Amino acid sequence: MSGGSARSLAKGSAPPGPVPQGLIRVYSMRFCPFAQRTLLVLKAKGIGHEIININLKNKPEWFFTKNPFGLVPVLENSQGQLIYESAITCEYLDEAYPGKKLLPDDPYEKACQKMVFELFSKVLTNKKTTFFGGNSLSMIDYLIWPWFERLEVLELNECVDHTPKLKLWMAAMREDPAVSSLLIEAKAFRGFLDLYLQNSPEACDYGL
Ligand SMILES: N[C@@H](CCC(=O)N[C@@H](CS)C(=O)NCC(=O)O)C(=O)O
């Protein structure tokens, strides 16, 4: 995933300055599936952004002023406004920026996407279309993609072998330019996970 190649900022680092005009900043971590949602929406909408990676095993003290929960992703705009929680960051970007609309305008269709999203962690709905929001890719697909991508990376994709519709969806997702530009590198992800599970402060910078 091209989630910014700079080393992450850790405890003791100076807080970054204001966000330059015309850009939005995302506090991220190279292997985080929640941050990947935000990055997918930034890419899909062509929004100019900068990435600051955070060392989640050794967080800078100032990071809690960006998000009291201390989690990535967080967005910061040039007016100093802060937005956290991945699904909220994605909806904010869709509403605040012009370009391709990823959430439907129709209130019922929008509610449907949010219902699928709520169901996602439990069971997946029996979808009848190629994508989760209909026949073209929309917000809900980006919101759930990072977890399916990691299934493959962790060689757990037999989980979807018995569901041909999901396999077709995954193949269609891979064709999307935002998705293909943010694919995680399998070896790096496994290396990261290994260190992360050992609580290593080097985990977030694995492979840099
Ligand atoms: N509900 C949050 C979850 C975000 C989250 O858990 N991010 C992880 C990285 S993948 C994190 O920041 N972990 C740091 C920690 O748990 O201290 C969202 O959707 O943004």
UniProtKB/TrEMBL annotation:
The family database entries (Gene3D superfamilies) matched by this protein are listed as: 1.20.1050.10, Glutaredoxin
- EC annotation? 1.20.4.2, 1.8.5.1, 2.5.1.18
Q: Where is the GST C-terminal domain?
A: 65-197
Q: Does the keyword Oxidoreductase apply?
A: yes
* Primary residence: cytoplasm
| Compartments where found | Cytoplasm, Cytosol
- Catalysis performed (reactions): RX + glutathione = an S-substituted glutathione + a halide anion + H(+); methylarsonate + 2 glutathione + H(+) = methylarsonous acid + glutathione disulfide + H2O; L-dehydroascorbate + 2 glutathione = glutathione disulfide + L-ascorbate
Q: Which GO terms describe its biological process?
A: glutathione metabolic process; L-ascorbic acid metabolic process
**Keyword set, alphabetical order:** Acetylation, Cytoplasm, Oxidoreductase, Transferase
What range(s) does the GST N-terminal domain occupy? 22-101
Domain of life here?
A: Eukaryota
Q: Which InterPro entries match?
A: Glutathione-S-Trfase_C-like (IPR010987), Glutathione-S-Trfase_C_sf (IPR036282), Glutathione_S-Trfase (IPR040079), Glutathione_S-Trfase_N (IPR004045), GST_C (IPR004046), GST_omega (IPR005442), GST_Omega/HSP26 (IPR050983), Thioredoxin-like_sf (IPR036249)
Q: Provide the Gene Ontology terms for cellular component.
A: cytosol
Q: Does the keyword Transferase apply?
A: yes
Q: What Gene Ontology terms describe what this protein does at the molecular function level? A: glutathione dehydrogenase (ascorbate) activity; glutathione transferase activity; methylarsonate reductase activity
Leader sequence residues = none
Q: What is its biological role?
A: Exhibits glutathione-dependent thiol transferase activity. Has high dehydroascorbate reductase activity and may contribute to the recycling of ascorbic acid. Participates in the biotransformation of inorganic arsenic and reduces monomethylarsonic acid (MMA). Exhibits glutathione-dependent thiol transferase and dehydroascorbate reductase activities. Has S-(phenacyl)glutathione reductase activity. Also has glutathione S-transferase activity. Participates in the biotransformation of inorganic arsenic and reduces monomethylarsonic acid (MMA) and dimethylarsonic acid.
Question: What's this protein's family per the entry?
Answer: Belongs to the GST superfamily. Omega family.
Query: What is known about its subunit structure?
Result: Homodimer.
Protein name (database record): Glutathione S-transferase omega
Which species does this protein come from? Puma concolor (Mountain lion)
